[in-house]
Protein: dTDP-4-dehydrorhamnose 3,5-epimerase
Amino acid sequence: MKIEETFIKDLVVIEPTVFGDERGYFFESYSKTKFEDLGINIDFVQDNQSFSKKGTLRGLHYQNPPFAQTKLVRVLEGEIIDVAVDLRKDSPTYGKSFSVLLSAENKKQLLVPQGFAHGFSVISETASVMYKCDQFYNKEAEGGIKFDDPSLNIDWGMDLKEAIVSEKDQVLPFIDNCNSLF
Ligand SMILES: Cc1cn([C@H]2C[C@H](O)[C@@H](COP(=O)(O)OP(=O)(O)O[C@H]3O[C@@H](C)C(=O)[C@@H](O)[C@H]3O)O2)c(=O)[nH]c1=O
Structure:
């Protein structure tokens, strides 16, 4: 298992050790002790899975404290551009975004800490995305930022006019007006 730092503190990409043989492959997608060896000590309590068609864009979402969530995101099928935006007011990278291609093929995982907004776009025909969370879903604590906020200028790898976006996500505020409490 390998950990890649990003330019944003605490936001890391994890690559598993994959064992291939004539049957196919095997890897540990999560191991509490191996993650602890990498300095990651998180108690995950909920696993989520979503399936989306090409052109779907979900996000950018977060839950405010005390219900903030760390998310460990991976792709079971397909390819996504996974995006995290730093919302920590005292962070030197506040308002900056990081994007990474996650796919069933590259098996990379993005560890999105508490204090970030998260979203992804689907660039393959379909994609199944799975993520672990260290806090339960709480509707009242939900917050979001509009995916096309010009101050974030995120490259979602698609024509945004064609993006498939939920009604809820179409009316989210830009970062300067969001209700983030981080
Ligand atoms: C996120 C979530 C949603 N739901 C319900 C609420 C709603 O009726 C339905 C669909 O919810 P949403 O439209 O919010 O799903 P979605 O837009 O996929 O929301 C997700 O987006 C990605 C980018 C994230 O980072 C996640 O944390 C989550 O916010 O599922 C739960 O029951 N539990 C959950 O944990």
